[in-house]
């Protein structure tokens, strides 16, 4: 880790310059301010940004680890989370503001200085942190982490950010050229994602903005009752039944790891949208035998575990993944289940004979754009080029899935992304084959409103409170 540890240099002082709230005993008038100490929350937020920038860390893994190690007070931990996630989500807008205030291109700045500028600017633009506190604490961090020279630059730039007002005022100053650009700046998404959402939703209006803004809301914890009655899990967790999946319990917040059913693996954590995607495979009508199911891309095993739990007696489940370490996770997820086979296999060059399965789940590797609310940095890390690369793999896997299923059998093609190219774009050429027919998804879920995307299924965080899962059902006719 490049920055000082929270418990190391001058860390652990009381919170300095938190979002405006009731004045406390420690609050001082501006004229009597003392030099701010490095507080654990800001330092932890910076260390998350630095991990993401310099080591391509995942914020949702790094932040909990740092919070555990540093044992921050709950209030500081909440502030560190708000700062780190908020700054990561807002990176594009923050950079648009900073670009006009720094004489060099941002890419030429020391990456640590750029992260510190973003951290300070986020407090000024989006949080009700008093300007002097946002600037002074960021300057102090810069001095400690980078050095005195850089702290002068950070001080000067952040003062200009503060002088420009809050986000609203800055949006007016930046004067977006068109509606897409306005959404880019107001909802903190890259332009290509705004355009992809517009295409997938087929709308420009308020719903597009609502869909984008939903990516900034922390998701509820969803549980899946696999081998425990749902009512028991509801009672045990103090949650509420999920509205769509008969196995889902929505927990709101709280640590699911404390629940006995989760500890016993009879229940688990699984987004309700992922549950519906797996259930779509099971609900597709089928003629003839229904005894052999395949999950081609099973790691880490969430959907395989649900399929194993809900399959009718006599169904044998094969679960495969190309990555050995993910296959180990599948094994753990399926532990104790009879009649399952777990193996390492590349789905595009599979060891299983053609036509051997009645139902095949292809939960394809994808951009994961449908789960942006879980991973704040992903919207800026992914690029439009990633889509093309994944589409080639998705196509090859879908061809292989259709080869694995017997005539009359069904393939569920699933992505955690609503992007047109990864969803409808992959399915359309296959659906046009004369040995394939599309099974409409929405009629299989009459209880779920607004999930039809043509003949396929599409869930959205702003409509369903789930990740943006896509599912298409394809039957081989001969
Ligand atoms: C979206 S994840 C699957 C999630 C899983 N179904 C679940 O619910 O837990 C996609 C998986 O595809 C696997 N994968 C990627 N390329 C593959 C290939 N050619 N053959 C088999 N698995 C592959 C990845 O290792 C990854 O585990």
UniProtKB/TrEMBL annotation:
InterPro entries: MeTrfase_RsmB-F_NOP2_cat (IPR049560), MeTrfase_RsmB-F_NOP2_dom (IPR001678), NusB-like_sf (IPR035926), NusB_RsmB_TIM44 (IPR006027), RCMT (IPR023267), RsmB/NOL1/NOP2-like_CS (IPR018314), SAM-dependent_MTases_sf (IPR029063)
Annotated region described as Disordered, given as residue ranges: 1-36
PANTHER family: NOP2 YEAST -RELATED NOL1/NOP2/FMU SUN DOMAIN-CONTAINING, RIBOSOMAL RNA SMALL SUBUNIT METHYLTRANSFERASE B-RELATED
Biological processes annotated in GO: regulation of DNA-templated transcription; RNA methylation
Function: May act as RNA methyltransferase.
Binding-site residues for S-adenosyl-L-methionine, renumbered to this chain: 297-303, 321, 346, 363
CDD domains (UniProt xref): AdoMet_MTases
Keywords, ordered alphabetically: Methyltransferase, RNA-binding, S-adenosyl-L-methionine, Transferase
Protein name (record): rRNA cytosine-C5-methyltransferase
Family per similarity comment: Belongs to the class I-like SAM-binding methyltransferase superfamily. RsmB/NOP family.
Secretion signal span: none
Active site per database record: 416
Keyword DNA-binding set for record: no
SUPFAM superfamilies to which the protein is assigned, alphabetical: NusB-like, S-adenosyl-L-methionine-dependent methyltransferases
Domain SAM-dependent MTase RsmB/NOP-type: 200-477
Any one GO molecular function term: RNA binding
């Amino acid at each position: 880790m490049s920055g000082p540890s929270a418990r190391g240099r001058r860390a652990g002082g009381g919170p300095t310059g938190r979002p405006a709230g009731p004045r406390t005993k420690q609050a001082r008038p501006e004229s009597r301010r003392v030099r701010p100490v490095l507080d654990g929350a800001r330092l932890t937020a910076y260390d998350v940004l630095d991990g993401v920038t310099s080591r391509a860390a995942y914020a949702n893994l790094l932040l909990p680890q740092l919070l555990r190690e540093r044992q921050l007070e709950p209030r500081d931990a909440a502030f560190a989370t708000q700062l780190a996630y908020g700054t990561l989500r807002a990176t594009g807008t923050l950079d648009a503001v900073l670009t006009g205030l720094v004489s060099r291109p941002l890419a030429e700045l020391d990456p640590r200085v750029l992260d510190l500028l973003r951290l300070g600017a986020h407090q000024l633009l989006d949080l009700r942190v008093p300007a002097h506190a946002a600037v002074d604490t960021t300057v102090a961090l810069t001095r400690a982490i980078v050095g005195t020279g850089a702290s002068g630059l950070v001080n000067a730039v952040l003062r200009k950010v503060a002088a420009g007002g809050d986000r609203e005022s800055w949006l007016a100053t930046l004067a977006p050229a068109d509606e897409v650009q306005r959404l880019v700046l107001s909802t903190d998404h890259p332009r290509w994602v705004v355009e992809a959402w517009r295409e997938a939703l087929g709308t420009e209006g308020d719903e597009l903005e609502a869909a984008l803004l939903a990516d900034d809301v922390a998701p509820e914890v969803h549980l899946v009752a696999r081998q425990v009655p749902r009512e028991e899990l509801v009672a045990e967790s103090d949650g509420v039944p999920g509205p769509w999946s008969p196995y889902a319990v929505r927990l709101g917040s709280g640590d699911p790891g404390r629940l006995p059913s989760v500890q016993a693996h009879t229940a688990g954590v699984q987004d309700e949208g992922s549950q519906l995607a797996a259930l779509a495979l099971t609900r597709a009508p089928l003629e003839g035998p229904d005894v052999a199911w395949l999950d081609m891309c099973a790691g880490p095993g969430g959907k395989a575990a649900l399929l194993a739990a809900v399959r009718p007696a006599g169904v044998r489940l094969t679960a495969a993944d190309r990555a050995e370490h993910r296959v180990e996770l599948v094994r753990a997820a399926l532990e104790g289940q009879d009649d399952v086979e777990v193996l390492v296999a590349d789905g595009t060059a599979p060891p299983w004979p053609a036509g051997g399965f009645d139902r095949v789940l292809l939960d394809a590797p994808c951009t994961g754009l449908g789960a942006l609310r879980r991973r704040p940095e992903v919207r800026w890390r992914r690029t439009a080029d990633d889509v093309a690369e994944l589409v080639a793999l998705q196509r090859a896997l879908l061809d292989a899935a259709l080869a694995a299923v017997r005539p009359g059998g069904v393939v569920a093609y699933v992505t955690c992304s609503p992007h047109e190219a990864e969803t409808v774009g992959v399915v359309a050429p296959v659906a046009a084959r004369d040995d394939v027919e599309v099974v409409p998804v929405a009629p299989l879920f009459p209880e779920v409103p607004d999930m039809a995307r043509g003949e396929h299924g599409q869930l959205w965080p702003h409509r369903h409170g789930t990740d943006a899962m896509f599912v298409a059902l394809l039957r081989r006719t001969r």
